[in-house]
Amino acid sequence: MTDFISIADIDRTKMLELFDLAASLKADRTGTDALAGKTVALIFHKPSLRTRVSFEVGVAELGGHPMYVTDAEIKMGQRESTYDIGKVLERYVHGIMIRTFAHSNATELADAAGIPVINGLTDLLHPCQVMGDILTCVERGKNVDEMVVSFVGDGNNVANSWVNAAGNLSFELRIAGPSGYQPDPELLSAARAKGANINVMHDAIEAVAGADVVYTDVWTSMGQEEEAKEREAQFRSFQVNDELLSRAKADAIVLHCLPAHRNDEITDSVMDGPQSAVFDQAENRLHAQKAIMVDLIGG
Ligand code: CP
Ligand code: NVA
Predict the structure, then answer these.
(1) pLDDT tens across 186-204, in order?
(2) Does residue 160 have its Cβ closer than 6 Å to ligand 2?
(3) Are residues 57 and 89 located together in one domain of the fold?
């Protein structure tokens, strides 16, 4: 791996290797100094709790130095080009994590910089999230080739990264949302061409029947705030609540990438209930990303 922009860019073997590495890093949090003497720049164009803190902590736990960079300072594409930023940063730091709007900002930066670039969320994808998510499924005893994952809600960046993951592993992915809010069609075709078992549906109850994992994400993502009212109306029947969850397997787990809009896409009772794994999932961002950084930047 030279960058980590999309799960579609790695194969099944690499994914499984990263889950194993993440589990061992979790078991011994400060046991490796793989990033000793190295600096990782963390560029943010959007707000963050998990991504910011888990990357900073992760780099520090690996013995490296994290550097938080906001767009208020660098003004990517305005003050100078993304290309020039990549060419300059490669002279100073050993890796870059970027959270941004247009996916092309991440790919252009990765193309320009001769150092590893990690995607910490774009409008299109959220690959680190889904690596942490699947790590959580594995920890909870789910089989990555047999589980049924029901994603209820917006077919946006998180759902798109699940589509990519379904191209590498054999789990069944069902994505249920209103018309017009489906995952990216090109990513769907590419995953299906690799044999992915994906069903795009419009009925939440049908999607969740017999599921091992029930997943949801906010109805209005960062950058879509002006669509919030319309989205609330469209997604109203796609709430993950006790009634919906009762359709899944009795031992199903509930995942949410967070931040949650409690009692919109997920009720308090589900989020705080016995099947919720959302805080383990949030923690696992740290361990999954440490594995990605050891692989890409370490050594
Ligand atoms: N799930 C996630 O990426 O959270 P943040 O937006 O807080 O980083
Ligand atoms: N789909 C959400 C994910 C947040 C982690 C967003 O892009 O805002």
Answers:
(1) 999 999 999 999 999 999 9
(2) no
(3) yes
